[in-house]
Every structure is written in C-alpha cells, then in structure tokens.
Amino acid sequence: MEIIAVNVYEGINPYAFRPVIKIKMDLGNLAWVPTNTLQGFNERLLAYLPTLHEHYCSRGHPGGFVERLREGTYLGHVIEHVILELQHLAGMEVIYGKTLGPRGTEVEIIFEYCSREGGLQAARSAVRVVENLLARKEVDIGAEIRLIQKAAEARDLGPSTRAIAEAARRRGIPVRRIGQGSLLQLGYGCRQRRVAATITDNTSCLGVDIVADKELLKELLQEAGIPVPVGAVAKSEEEALKVAERLGFPVVVKPLRGNHGRGVFLNLTTPAALKQAFVLAQQEEEEILVEKYYPGRHYRLTVVGERMVAAAERIPPLVVGDGKHTIKELVDNVNQDPMRGEGHSRPLSRIVIDPAVILCLSRQGYTINSVPRAGEKVFLRENANLSSGGTAVDVTDLVHPENAELAVRAAKVAGLDVAGIDIVAEDISRPLPGQGVVVEVNACPGIRMHHFPSEGEPRDVAGAVIDTLFPPGDDGRIPVVAVTGTNGKTTTVRMLGHILNLAGYRVGMTTSDGIYVDGRKIMDGDTTGPRSARALLANREVEVAVLETARGGILREGLGYDLSDVAIITNVSADHLGQDGIETLEDMAEVKALVAEAVREGGTVVLNADDPLVAAMAGRVKAQVIYFSMKKDNPVIRRYLGVGGTAVFVRGSHVVVARGCQVKRIIAVKNIPATLRGIARHNLQNALAAAAGALALGVDLKTLQRGLATFTCSLEHNPGRLNIFEVGGVRIVVDYGHNAAGFESVLQAIRRLKPRRLIGVVGMPGDRLDESIVAAGRVCGRYFRELIIKEDSDLRGRKPGEVAALLKEGAVQGGLAARRIKIVLPEEEAVRKALAAAYPGDTVVIFYERLGCVLKVVEEFKKEREAAETSRTGSTG
Predict the structure, then answer these.
(1) What confidence tens digit (pLDDT) does each residue in 200-222 have?
(2) What is the mean predicted confidence (pLDDT) over 741-768?
(3) pLDDT tens digit string along 220-229?
(4) Which end of the chain is more exposed for a tag (fewer CB within 10 A), N or C?
C-alpha cells in the first residue's frame, strides 16, 4: 500500500469547514479485504492502540469503531482512525475523518489536522503501523508519536505567535500565515495588519535597532531618569578586567547585541570567573558589556501600547535532587515534561546542558554527574530566560503602580509599541529606585511566560496586542464577494467590480484572465483559484474584493478566504463532468454550494431562481437570499416575495428589484449595453446577478443604474467576452465560450443580429467527456453555415485531432454538412482561414483559447482590409 496523492486544505473545503488533509492511497489487493477476515489483525491493532476503543465512528457511541472492526470494515477506514488516534496521542485535538471508496484498488482518506506537517507525518506513520501489523511485525507507537511531534514542532507557529492568532480568531479577524515563519496577516485588503510574533506593523525599526544596542539603550534610559546598571563595553579580557576592577566585583557579562540570554553570565565574583565567562560570551559576539551585578529577583514586565499588561518573575532553570540521580539524569527527567519543547515550540523550553551550565555548576562545586541531596535545589544557570529552560510565576497584581508606569516609559524611550522590560529588583511591589534597575528592554518579547506561567494566573497579552491593532468593532475585514457557477462568472465579476468602482471603492478582482486592482491588471493568467484569492486579499490597496471562484480550485485546495459577505451562484450546467469525482450535475452543484454556505452571518447569497439546482441551495444556507430571474412570474420568486424576500428580475422591458410587494425599476434592458439592447440574454442574466450583488453590498439604485449603463462588452471592460469588431463589413465576435451552454448563449445572441452567414472557429478543452464535446459540436452544427475546428495547444491528455473529430461528429449530428466543416488544428491558422473566407455581411464567431493570439490576427486582418480599401479607392480615384 502507498500514498499516491496528497491535498492539503487550509480552510473551508468540500469536506469540512475546518482544515483537513486528503490522501489518495493505492491499497492493491488489500483494498477490498474486510478486517474480520484478517486473522489476529484486530487484536494486534487494539493491543497497540487501546484508545481506539473510545472512537465513536458512525455508530455515535464509544466503541463504535471497534464494532465496525469486528463486523468487518476495510483497511482505508482503519488507516483513517489510526491517523486520528496518532495525532490525538501526539497532543493534537482532532476528531473529523472520512473515507471514500474503495474505487478499484484506490481509496481517499480525509482527516482533520491541527499541524500540517504533523498531520502529514501522522498519515505516513499510520500506513507504516498498519503495514507492520499486517506483517505481524513489532510496532513502536511511542516512536511514531515522537516523529509526529517533531514534525509539528519544526514547522508550527510558536506559542507567542499562536496565541496572537487565536486571539485574532476570537475577535472574528481572519488569520493567514505567510511563509513558514511567524509572519501573520490579520484581516484582509486595506484593513489588514501584520505581525511577526509580537512585532507588529506599528513597531519602529529604529526602536528595534536601539534596544539591540544595549549600551545605547542604557544611555537613553538613564537620560530619561530610569535606573540602569553601570558598566562599559570590552573587546578583550584585559579590557573586561579593567572595567570590572573599576566597578568592583561582582559583575555581569553579556553580548552587546545578544538575545534569549545566550552568553549572559551573572554574579561573577573573581577575575578567573570573569575571564572564563568572557571567553564563552565572545562565542556569541566580539563586543561584550561588563556591568555591575545587582542582586535581586528577575522580573519581566510586558508593555503593550500605553500600559503594562502582564508581569512575571522569571526563575532560572533548576533541578531538585532526590539523592539517587545525577544532575544530568534529573535534567533528562525535567525535559520529559510535555510542556517543554525544542526552542520556543512549546510553553517551556527544554534545558540544554551547554558550557554555560557547566560553568554555573562548577561555581557551585558540581558537575553534571554529581548526585544532589534529596530536596536540594541546584540552579543550572543564573540568568532566567525561558528560552534557556527557565520558568515563570505571574506577579502582575503585585507590581507597584510606579513600576508599571516606569515600564511604559522605558518602552516609549525605546520607541516600541510592544516591549518586554527586564528588571532586577528586591521586590517588584516597591518602587524601583534604590532597590533595582532596568537591565534590558526587549523588542518582540516572548509572551508564553504570561500565557502559560508555571504558577499564577495566565494573562492574555496576545489579546492586548490584538486590541491595540484593531479597536473595538474592527474585525479587519473588507467586503468580499465570491462568484461561482458554470458560465458567466467572469462577466459578472467584472460588471460588479465596475459598479463598485463607481460607488467609490478601490476594487480588487480575480478573474480567468488575471488579477486586477483599481482597474490595473497586476497578474496575468487564470487566477480563479484559492492562491489568487489569498494574493488579492493580501493586497493593501484593495477596499472590496470580488473573487471569481472556480470548481477546480475548490476541489484542489478549498476556498482562499474564510467567509464572504456575498456569494453569487450564476448557474450549473454540464461542464467538467467526469473530472475529480464530479460525475453528475448534482455533484457539480454540491461543489458550487460550498461558496453559498461559506457566507458570514448577516451576509447575502445571490441565487439564480431559473436554475433548479441553484435555487435549491437556499435550503442549505443560513444567510439571507436574493434571487434573480429572467422571468417576472418565476414561481420561486413569487413565493419568496410573498414572505417578504428580495429578488431582482426582468419585468416587461425593465430590470426591477422587489422587496415583498414593493417594486422599483433599476434600468431599462435596452440601456444595458452588455446585453446588446436585450439581445444577449446571457449577459442580461449576468447583469441581474451583478445587480443583486451590488444591492446586497448597499449600493444605491442611482449608482447601480449608472454602472449597468456604462459597462460594455469592450476590451476595456470585458476582454474576451462577447467582444464585437466591425472590419470591412465583416462582424467579428470573440468569446471564451468553452462548453455547449456557453456556445448556445453566444450564438443565440448573434443569430438575433441577423448575419448573412455565420462562420465559426471553435475548440474544446481536451479534459471534457466525449459526450460533452459532441454536445458542444451539435450546438455549432445548428447555428453555423461554415465551421472551422481548431484544438487547444494544451491537449489535456488527448491525442492530436481527437477533440476535433468529436466536435465534427457533433456538428454533423446538429445538421451541418461535413463539406462545410474544416479541421485546422492551430488556433492562429484557423482564425486566419475563417477571416479570409468572410465576405461583407458575414459574422465570424471565434471561441478562443488564447485571447492575445486571436486579437493579433484580428488586428492584422483589419490592417489588410484597410490597405485593400485604400488601394481600391486610390485606383478608382
């Protein structure tokens, strides 16, 4: 058995409203073998993973999965439950799983994850566990759990950043991790903020530089009347010794620009101890700060904005002897605490035995092999940083108000919006002057000590950070509109974007030909997937986002946003069937419905009442619905208006909006240029959808009317969609129709223009079903007098000429004589041939793959006709 494909869904997806991973597995000849026929397998599985007894499965009660095992279930289902249980044992709270299949020898397993890397490792581990159980080999569950934890810790957010992400989500603020580090995008578009751990986009770069230079910082603090330790910078042992002699022992040494307590040595009482510590400190940096040592407790006061929000006493790492174990063994025992992890990955850090620990022990007369007496505390370091294994006790309520004010002042002197003020004092409940000093100011302070103190009350520092970035009532969101459907998505997006631009918004759009911001194309290509949506929502210029949301991206990665304000479903027709498990129109509607379901509370879903599959989605959404229809007497709309609902539809010659029994005219159909005075019925449908979306966003009727009246099927407004050119008496129509319904809509409109002769250039994507391609050919056979069939440059798995042959078959079935059909596979050549065959009064309809290629040929044709006309008039003159 092997994993042959993996999809990771970070947000809302076709399987769940939570992050999931889907693995496709080939189980070979084991795919259809039930577990009750595998001798001893169930017993071995439950012996190694007894907690599987707690799994409900579909039975709805503990032990349900074990019942399924004993009755006989398939191995894909078993692997699903093992994946979930291994994650649970690794400390991850996951419950959702689903297995699809088997289909042949393949099965799809969908499971929830907290950690992407941890979840992927859990899948690999689960497969290995099941394989070994089938082969009657030994299984090391503990080792697999450690692998999962290690994978998670290597890539997951640290406690501080994770706390900020969780605080943002509690406020309803969208959260997106950018890259593999700690950078978070909070919110969307122009209202987003960014943080990296506790550095925010308000944090001064100059402030960070100032606190990185400890000597410069001390000078500024001292100038502001804040007590600091006296000292000087040394670059050699001799210089350090001179400074220490001038200050008087004991002293402290620390790297001038160090952090996380690395290279910091306290309470050095002799020249020998100083030299030894200086050598170790210079492994971090050449310039070393030598300061007077001040006895007392070590405190961290964390400042956010204008106030001190938390305080902790930091305790250096230590072990307590039992009279039996060595210090090294005691450290190993302490490190078994599940709260401790590598670096900053967990609330506490593992204690690392390094030269600084060895030095600290030697000053106490110990080595790592010493066995302390029972109850004896042995400190492993003198500095109390959590990153070196220390712990923290909350003392927020003990801090004297003057000390809290002093901490805020220190942060302001440094120029930091979020800062950790390190203080050494005898008692933090008494004013600092005379009994303590500020030893450091930290940019990007860790906040895990406040959220996970070893003793005392946790403090929500992350929440305070979020509150400074987002005032009450601000959730960092911009209006987001998601548009999906089989046909009409791009035109609806562009039309709505045009209306919103007139309403005064800086609009961002993702479409099938690129990403646009404020009318400028900033990215070329098909940008209808979740990655493009995320890219647009990360753009700080965007005030409202209109996202074309295609089926393929939903199935591959889910949605690229958490929730929209408005969802528009245009229609569902036969396209992309036979792909990605989508076999029927009902399957397709199920995928599209996800966009309708993922609308935030108070939002709106715009549904096509003329499409039964789309209209039925109203039963599964919680948001309010606005229907649109080409028919004034649509029964769905009539019933909906009867209960006070809202709909946009065509009544007589006008587009109207009705709320209950109140009806208002928006615009005459003939005044919507995209409809060609009402001839292009599909664009009238798109206009209804766009109008409903605009109304859902609160656009006034006057602006809506102006938007519909000024949006044209031009290259400026709607490139590649019903673009019409007049060249020497020949009408040329360029459109992206790529399925039977799309062909039919455009050709119905063009036929109403009464062309003398209709010439077509058509192709179809190769990944469509044969019957879909033939059906599209039949449409062409009914409308065209001459037909030139081309093929896409990307054959999508087809042989050259295969799609063309199917289209020709369909065209003949549609009534077009074979002699009037030509197959010219290259698109450019096919367009040239069609234009060359056209006479004045003819109309050439080009359903393109590459718009640029087609427009180039049209422009050349235009120049040729103009040159011919110039030559003709010149010769007759």
Answers:
(1) 999 999 999 999 998 999 999 99
(2) 93
(3) 999 999 999 9
(4) C
DSSP letter for each residue of 683-714: HHHHHHHHHHHHHHTT--HHHHHHHHHH--SS
DSSP code at position 828: H
End-to-end CA distance of the chain: 83
Query: What is the distance between the alpha carbons of residues 400 and 70, in angstroms, rounded to a whole number?
Result: 65
Contact 672, 708 (CB under 8 A): yes
In contact, 311 and 300? CB cutoff 8 Å = yes
Query: How crowded is residue 126: how many other Cβ atoms within 10 Å of its Cβ?
Result: 26
What is the model's pLDDT at position 579? 66
Contact of 835 with 843, CB cutoff 8 Å: no
Q: According to the model, what pLDDT value does residue 159 have?
A: 87
User: Nearest Cα to 565, choosing from 486, 695, 478?
Assistant: 478
> Which of these, 570, 468, 565, 447, lies nearest to 197 by C-alpha position?
447
Peptide bond into 102 cis (omega under 30): yes
Reply yes or no on whether the pLDDT at 258 is more than 90. Answer: no
Phi, psi of 284, rounded to the nearest 5 degrees: -90, -40
Helix pair angle (214-223, 205-212), 10° resolution: 100
Please report the DSSP string for 467-530 in residue order.
HHHS-TT------EEEEE-SSSHHHHHHHHHHHHHHTT--EEEEETTEEEETTEEEEES---SH
CB atoms within 10 A of CB 374: 10
Calpha distance 570→491 (Å, rounded): 11
pLDDT at 421: 97
Q: Is the peptide bond before 250 cis (omega within 30 degrees of 0)?
A: yes
Mean per-residue pLDDT, 640-649: 96
CA 68, CA 42: separation in Å to the nearest integer? 10
Q: Given this model, what pLDDT does residue 348 score?
A: 80
Question: Which residue bears the tokens 């030893």?
Answer: 439
CA-nearest of 876, 842, 581, 872 to 725 is: 842
Q: Look at residue 264 and tell me whether its pLDDT is greater than 90.
A: no
Q: What are the Cα distances from residue 176, in Å, to 166, 288, 557?
A: 11, 40, 15
Residues β-bridged to residue 379: 318
- HSE-up (13 A, CA, CB side) for residue 311: 26
The answer to whether 576 and 703 have CB atoms below 8 angstroms apart is no
Report which secondary-structure segment, H or E, holds 126.
helix 116-134
Strand locations in 736-847 (E): 757-762, 786-789, 821-823, 842-847
Q: Which pLDDT value is given to residue 256? A: 87
pLDDT at residue 875, rounded to an integer: 62
pLDDT tens column, 478-501: 999 999 998 899 999 999 999 999
Task: Quote the tokens at residue 645.
Answer: 């609902």
CA neighbor of 554 nearest in space, from 579, 526, 529: 529
- The arithmetic mean of pLDDT across residues 686-690, rounded, is 98
Tell me which residue has tokens 């078993």: 78
